[in-house]
Amino acid sequence: MPELPEVETVRRGLIPAMEGRVIAAARVNRPDLRWPFPPRMAQRLTGARITRLGRRSKYLLADLSSGETLIVHLGMSGRMLVSGAVMGRFHHDHPAPAKHDHVVFDMEGGARVTFNDARRFGAMDLIETDRVEGHWLLAGLGPEPLGNAFHQDYLVERLRGRMTPIKAALLDQRVVAGLGNIYVCEALHRAGISPKRKAGRISAARIAELVPVIRTVLQEAIAAGGSSLRDYRQSDGELGYFQHDFRVYGREGQPCRTPGCCGTVTRIVQSGRSSFYCPQCQR
Ligand SMILES: [Zn+2]
Description:
Layout: H1 4-18, E1 23-28, H2 41-45, E2 50-56, E3 59-64, E4 68-73, E5 78-83, E6 86-87, E7 90-91, E8 101-107, E9 112-117, E10 123-128, H3 152-159, H4 166-171, H5 181-191, H6 204-232, E11 238-239, E12 266-270, E13 273-277
Antiparallel strand pairs: 1-8, 2-3, 3-4, 4-10, 5-9, 5-11, 6-7, 8-9, 12-13
The chain binds zinc ion.
């Protein structure tokens, strides 16, 4: 499932094909993904110029010259493929239409962007650009973890007195937007905090330390995604999924990577989701 760094990588990969360009033709091959598409979506997109391709949490936001913004969520399995575009030295031929190609954007300049989503947990909607922050998918979101509103005093205050485990508190999108299971596990490991600790029982100093750790974990993943963008041009044009070395995520039974720690990465289930952590160095 794509998390914030993957979505940011998709955004950066789409910019050369989409930002500043007119959607020459949009094709919508089915009435819905997770929810119905907005009425006349293809007509509303066709002919519009994408003035800015932004991101809020795990949502891509394409501001259009028509005054609307296209909101895109990749869901569980959504993929963006770029073809036909000359990206630097590389060129991908348009692939044959595939099953689960649900929305296709033919851009002015020859690039084609295909949204493929086998499980259809993705979503797209259109809303007037000046109302986008109030869209029901975005309205309740907390600050961006890489933005200025996410700072140490904010997080300390937000978690004060909360008796939920710190893992669940950081996954709460109202506390901080876009953090998912993988990067919360990684951040807690680097901060040396057990995912089981009650948020309100952790000292303010240790909560404050989490802020730069979360930023670092996300920035490193975004950097890894950037490296994958340089590679994708040689592969099939698919954006957003990349190999990344995790310190705990998916490493159950393997040695902890904290220098000097002889612990073993352990998996527990919290709120129905796997938490990976080292019981030795995460307290
Ligand atoms: Zn350890």
